[in-house]
Design brief:
Radius of gyration: 28 Å
Strand content: 5-15%
Mean pLDDT: 85
Number of helices: 3
Helix content: 25-40%
Largest sheet: 3 strands, antiparallel
Number of strands: 5
Low-confidence stretches: none
């Protein structure tokens, strides 16, 4: 009796699942080792070696700094999403709606006079410092 195609496919799927589990386990172990910090990092050619207390971790490639210019809320640090976009007036400082609402409510609860929506939307040259 030989193996049929479905048996071969089942063995292949099982082997792939086992490999995936092993890879995930190895990544978790590496994470734990790196949490304690690297003792040294050596770069030779196109190979980077991270030395930890337990072992040396060899990686292909040279570490490079990635400069991501992502707008974030100046209060909570979240990036904008479709459901919760960021807002700005100066294209430099951004704020999300929840932080804006918390700030507005904080002022109201502390007895600070706040403008109404009508006052803010009808006055073309709105001056927030008058409040």
């Amino acid at each position: 009796m030989g193996l049929n195609i479905s048996d071969i496919q089942k063995k292949k799927v099982k082997a792939e699942e086992e490999n995936k589990k092993n890879e995930e386990k190895e990544i978790q172990e590496l994470d734990k080792e790196l949490e304690s910090g690297a003792e040294d990092i050596e770069i030779k050619g196109n190979t980077t070696t991270i030395k930890t207390k337990k072992r040396d971790i060899e990686l292909n490639g040279i570490p490079t700094e990635v400069n991501l210019d992502i707008n974030r809320c100046i209060f909570c640090g979240h990036t904008g999403t479709e459901r919760n976009p960021l807002f700005t007036i100066d294209n430099e400082h951004y704020i999300c709606k929840p932080c804006l609402i918390y700030g507005f409510r904080t002022m109201l609860l502390n007895g600070i006079k706040m403008p109404s929506i009508e006052e803010m939307s009808t006055n073309e040259k709105f001056d927030a410092y008058q409040y």
